[in-house]
Design brief:
It is a single chain. The chain is mainly alpha-helical. The chain has 2 domains: 64 residues, Winged helix-like DNA-binding domain superfamily/Winged helix DNA-binding domain (Arc Repressor Mutant, subunit A, Orthogonal Bundle), CATH 1.10.10; 33 residues, no CATH class. The protein has 5 helices and 2 strands; from the N terminus they run H-H-H-E-E-H-H. Strands 1-2 form a two-stranded antiparallel ribbon. The chain is elongated, with a radius of gyration of 16 Å. Keywords: DNA-binding, Transcription, Transcription regulation. InterPro entries: Tscrpt_reg_HTH_GntR, WH-like_DNA-bd_sf, WH_DNA-bd_sf.
């Protein structure tokens, strides 16, 4: 169900979260469906179980997954891309501010990329 790209520079937990997010968004994993255990996912992906747990916690915080004691982890709803992008944009602007960049500067940088 999930695969990772070993050439991807992102941290492994982000790659795992992205893979699960994609599975849910594409309908491979549907609301109410229970996911395999973190150990099973880790073994299938060839990563540490703590890496998978961190990814699953991130997705829980996004409202994509639900943790239920005794029932494991299940899909709650598809990811809301707009909310994820807003959160990441906020983080980007905070990081840019630490380097002395204004929001207008970041907008110009993004325009250069497109």
């Amino acid at each position: 169900m999930l695969t990772l790209d070993l050439n991807d520079p992102r941290p492994l937990h982000e790659q795992v979260a992205a893979a699960v997010r994609q599975a849910v968004a594409s309908g491979v994993a549907t609301p109410g469906q229970r996911l395999p255990s973190a150990r099973e996912l880790a073994a299938a992906l060839g990563v540490n179980a703590n890496t998978v747990l961190r990814a699953l916690r991130d997705l829980r915080d996004e409202g994509v997954l639900e943790f239920r004691r005794g029932r494991g982890v299940s899909v709650l709803r598809p990811p809301d891309g707009r909310q994820v992008l807003l959160r990441r944009s906020r983080e980007l602007l905070e990081e840019a501010g630490r380097y002395g960049y204004r929001p207008e500067d970041v907008i110009e940088m993004i325009k250069e990329l497109s």
